[in-house]
Design brief:
alpha+beta; 8-stranded mixed beta sheet; 6-stranded mixed beta sheet; 7 helices; 21% helix
Length: 363
């Protein structure tokens, strides 16, 4: 539940939360016909061999928690939706938004009002987790810290896209892969496969929100073990669902800030390239439009993006910037800044363009 887990213990009983769980409305779901998307600008290299275009992806934890965990959020959430819609009207919005903490009615409305033509939610409260034979987590479960054996909320995840979502898949993390108050939501991972007109094949985009540390109120050894299990399960989901021909982007709230142990465990399971690490190298040519401190800026944030090239289309980050951080993109509207990455997609110019082809639109 991100940074608000402890508030549940102080302000409400599990029974009250359960009563509220059914009062937040359905998550946004919007489908888009494959032929409805506008083609992006596509450049061809001087030698005529390579075609390329750009894709911008924002990951944003919108702090969309319900009362009593949070109060006074509807105004800021409404502004998030309105600002994204205004940016879309002006042609300056991110192409894809990965949303976390979309729990409350106001949060779901904000995502719906953002104006994206394709929207898909992540695991719901009732999405069944895979049955995995696992040892209990270290220490004892405590119902007072949210480990009550049932999920009172969905994952809070969503993908909003300017391009058709021709396929979506979701998976909840297993029952023994959560610790503390995080167990009250059905945290997991989702995939949205987008088709971009003029680009060969598709792009596989993933979002997640992983187990918190202090906010979970679970002992460090317990919440670390839960996070490690989620890292492994996320890697397995990516391996099972990603088409090797497609570039892959994986973003979200990874809850690894200032935790070497969490980052090491996650990296053990993931061969993916980390955007922060690439862009921190001055030789990369990546345009860094945000303030980074130290030699490892990825350790100072929860909000990250990873990527991997496809067999048909290569990918690299060319710009990173903060959004809704009090700067030109707008005021601070959440306890997280938005993190936007602009990627360059490139492929042989003589490739057959199938990006606007058929497939399911699962929204």
């Amino acid at each position: 539940m991100g940074g608000a887990g402890g508030s549940f213990c102080v302000l409400a009983s599990a029974g009250l939360i359960a009563a509220l769980a059914g009062c937040t409305g359905a998550p946004p779901l919007r489908t888009m016909a494959c032929g409805a998307a506008s083609a992006p600008d596509i450049a061809v290299s001087a030698d005529g061999r390579t075609a390329s275009t750009r894709l911008s992806v924002l990951t944003y934890n919108i702090e969309g928690l319900d009362w009593p965990a949070r109060s006074g959020r509807p105004v800021q959430l409404r502004q998030i939706g309105e600002r994204l819609a205004a940016m879309r009207a002006a042609g300056t919005a991110p192409d894809v938004v990965l949303v976390q903490e979309m729990f409350s009615r106001a949060a779901k409305k904000a995502v719906r009002d953002s104006g994206y033509p394709a929207i898909a939610p992540g695991p719901s409260r009732l999405t069944r987790a895979p049955k995995i034979k696992q040892e209990p987590l270290p220490g004892k479960s405590k119902w007072k810290h949210g480990e009550v054996g049932l999920r009172l909320k969905g994952s809070g995840l969503a993908i909003a896209s300017a391009y058709p979502l021709i396929e979506t898949q979701v998976r909840a993390y297993s029952r023994k892969a959560c610790a503390g108050f995080d167990c009250l939501s059905n945290k997991g991972i989702m995939m949205g496969r987008i088709a971009i007109p003029g680009v060969p094949g598709e792009i596989d985009i993933y979002g997640t929100h992983m187990n918190s540390r202090g906010a979970s109120k679970a002992p460090a050894v317990r919440n670390l073990a839960a996070h490690k299990r989620q890292s492994q399960e996320a890697a397995e989901f990516l391996a099972e669902t990603n088409d090797d021909a497609n570039p892959l982007i994986f973003g979200g709230d990874f809850n690894m800030r200032h935790s070497i142990d969490r980052f090491a465990a996650f990296s053990h399971y993931q061969p993916l390239e980390l955007v922060h690490r690439i862009c921190a190298d001055p030789k990369s040519g990546c345009d860094v439009r945000m303030s980074w401190d130290g030699d490892e800026p990825w350790m100072d944030t929860q909000d990250l993006q990873f990527f991997w090239p496809g067999d048909a289309v290569s990918i690299r980050p060319i710009r990173v910037e903060a959004m809704f951080d009090g700067g030109p993109s707008g005021p601070v509207l959440s306890d997280h800044d938005g993190f936007m990455v602009t990627y360059e997609l490139s492929w042989p110019a003589d490739s057959a363009c199938t990006g606007a082809g058929g497939g399911r639109s699962d929204g």
